[in-house]
Amino acid sequence: MPNLEVMELIGREEEVAKIDNIIEKTHIHAVLFLCGEGGLGKTRLLQEIHKSYASKSDFQTTQIIDFDDRTLRTFEGSEIRIAQELGIEAEVAKELQELRGLRSAGAPKRILEAQQQLLTEALKSRFNYQSKDKRILFFFDTI
After folding, report:
1. What is the chain's alpha carbon radius of gyration, rounded to the nearest angstrom?
2. Would you call 57 exposed, middle or buried from its count of C-beta atoms within 10 A (0-12, 13-18, 19+)?
3. CA angle, 5 then 86 then 4, to 5°
């Protein structure tokens, strides 16, 4: 991957300003999608936005989570990756292992749903806790 410190973003100032404006004005949970055909520079724009917010003390930024990574194409892979960014990978991995064991044992649907709810609650709880002090920006690519 090219060194972003050297590679200048050219001709996207308007898009960067619009995204900055949305981020700065939004003080609740929000999702912003950049959509378009391949090769238009969405990933490069995402990299630039990431770089500019990573150094701001009132934001916590994740690494760019790229769904071109095949390990993220399963629900479990995505949960683990998000848990890594929130600092609770071990807890979520343990809950996922329990869920796999229940599936293998043929547990009833209500038991599986309850275990999945534990995973969801762990992620949600940690996100809410961390976002009390800082705004959290998750960066996803190739969704």
Report:
1. 18
2. exposed
3. 10
Residue 85 confidence class, pLDDT cut points 50, 70, 90: very high
Give yes or no for a contact between 92 and 122, defined as CB atoms under 8 angstroms apart: yes
Q: What does pTM read for this prediction?
A: 0.82
Pair 44, 9: CB distance under 8 Å: yes
- With H, G, I as helix, E, B as strand and everything else as coil, classify residue 3: coil
Q: What are the φ/ψ torsions at residue 5 (nearest 5 degrees)?
A: -70, -25
Burial status of residue 88 (CB atoms within 10 A of its CB: 0-12, 13-18, 19 or more) = buried
pLDDT tens per residue, range 88-133: 999 999 999 999 999 999 999 999 999 999 999 999 999 999 999 8
In the chain, the amino acid numbered 95 is E
The DSSP code for 127 is H
Place of tokens 């806790």: 129
